[in-house]
């Protein structure tokens, strides 16, 4: 008996029901003709189950390389392209460059993918659930450990320069439950431990936002009045230098005279945190006022380093497995595979 990972011409795939890989088990079960040797597909499916990429049930080890198997293979390939691995005991292992897989995400199993699957089996690596810990912020809430480290550095830099990024924050890590609240994304990076809503209570006192239109999108450049107003901190703005947006009455007004930090610039300077654009409809006067305000997002920043392709990938990194995510409201493959954000 031969093994699928030893076949130099291997091409297990699904394009359509008329063009897919079927082994001996599928031939018996579905009364079709096998087109790959022995139990290649069944053995692959068992390996994907062992790695945590498919649920252990009969329909997932039937020898038919269908859409579910293709999705599992694609997820595996995406994860294999990362630098880190997770052992079955939840220990994280970071690989040197020489050990990184050099394949690509195709959803099909070629010899390279097959060998990498077997390497994971041999090394006892599994689907990477919990690769990043969640840690509390000094200002309140929680973030992913790498996001927290980057955010703490930003808070210190802003504070040292005479600005403020104190809490309480409006939102950081959001509880895992799908929401339909107006102005809230069901795929928000708040679920993933990457996002922070800074303290809106400082607006009009220390914070002032200038509208920044980029193409058809609206962003905000946020300025923070410095602790000292004697010229030793920040940059001076005179009244009339630019207009800031007054959200409560949706007008623009002259920035008050004083010394300011470019808060948006400082947050984004590290290349690790970014602002987000206002949601569509934020300025639609036909909509209810509070809903419009919720869509402005002037307070929202997120950890932008290595954002994953899918919402499921992001949630797995902070400890939620597929079964849990589905039970919390993201029940379909399309929802799991949706881009985060």
Describe it:
By secondary structure, the chain is of the alpha+beta class. It folds into 2 domains: 4-126, no CATH class; 134-336, no CATH class. Helix content is 27%, strand content 18%. The chain is built from 10 helices and 16 strands. It has helices spanning 24-30, 40-51, 67-80, 111-123, 145-160, 263-268, 289-294, 311-317, 322-327, 333-336, and strands spanning 14-16, 19-20, 84-87, 92-94, 125-126, 134-136, 142-144, 195-197, 207-214, 217-225, 235-237, 243-246, 251-254, 258-262, 273-275, 300-303. The strands form 6 sheets. A 4-stranded antiparallel β-sheet has the order 9-10-14-11. Strands 4-3-5 form a 3-stranded antiparallel β-sheet. Strand 3 (84-87) and strand 4 (92-94) form a beta hairpin. It is elongated, with a radius of gyration of 25 Å. It starts with 13 loop residues before the first strand and ends in a 5-residue tail after the last helix.
* Major β-sheet annotation: 4 strands, antiparallel
Radius of gyration: 25 Å
Structural class call reads alpha+beta
Indicate the overall shape: elongated
Strand order of the largest sheet: 9-10-14-11
Number of domains: 2
Range of helix content: 25-40%
SS field, number of helical segments:
10
